[in-house]
Amino acid sequence: MKDVSVIVRYHNKGDFDLLKNALFSLCIQGDVTVTPLIILHNCEENIIREIKEYISFLSSDWAMKKRFVIENINDDSDIRSTMLNRGIALNESRYLAFLDYDDVIYNGAYEYLLERLEKTNTAFSAGGCRKATFDVSGRYNYCESKVPFLNFTPNIFYFLVDNFLPIHSYMIDTHMVKQDDLYFDESLCALEDYELLIRLVSKYRMDLKGLDHFVCEYRIRNDETHTTPFHDLSLIDGDEKWSHGRSKISELLGELKFELSLKELKELI
Q: How much of the chain is helix, strand and coil, in % rounded to 5?
């Protein structure tokens, strides 16, 4: 049975019920052993204990019996990229995926992405994602709508325009990527996943043929707390972070070279 490590980010202001949903979604992944690498930000001991207890509860019927890792980082700054890099450093599996605490993976997603990687012999493979909007105004959350994340069929050169792949919609074969290339830019507090993808697609082959098969949900809360590690949005200087991220992306696009076949050029015109 093949093993997939999944880096799960969770911060101290996050909704613990959403984290439980995310972890539960990892349970049913077909003929795949899932190793969660749960990276926490400023979490108290009682939260860490609750997470361990919940994983123990799930693991009795979960293909996660090999091992799991929980590591807490105490830091008052925005360390979203640092958390991902720490998970990469802890990874011992050939196959690597990512999942934020407020999103979910569909049943059999990792088995499907593994099959795509083996079939295409590429460095990373992506599946389709649905955007689910949740109303959180009442006592119980409910899904208002669920639509495809993309309304077009992209190829890798659409990365020159924008990021179209949520971080939990793809899997990386770490044997196909040089260790020095597999990192997140820790100067970025926004668009850190976009920066990684641009660097990787400029060097390695990516499989996008599986985008018509949905593997995950990108969950949006109508109070917008899904986008930030703080419930008080006034604490975030979002414009500055996004501006820095966009500037970094623009600089990177000006430096990297992409190979383009005539067929792919024709598709873009």
A: 35, 25, 40
- With 0-12 / 13-18 / 19 or more C-beta atoms within 10 angstroms meaning exposed / middle / buried, residue 83 is buried
- Residue 212 token pair: 């018509």
Q: What is the pLDDT of residues 53-111, one digit of tens each?
A: 998 888 766 555 556 899 999 999 999 999 999 999 999 999 999 999 999 999 999 99
Instruction: Find out whether 72 and 48 touch, Cβ atoms under 8 Å.
Output: yes
Structure token pair of residue 90:
């802890």
Compute CA distances 84 → 71, 183, 186, whole Å: 12, 8, 9
State the chain's maximal CA–CA distance in angstroms: 58
The sign of the CA dihedral 41, 47, 48, 53 is: negative
The pTM assigned to this predicted structure is: 0.89
Tokens of 166: 């949520």
Helix (H) / strand (E) containing 244: helix 238-255
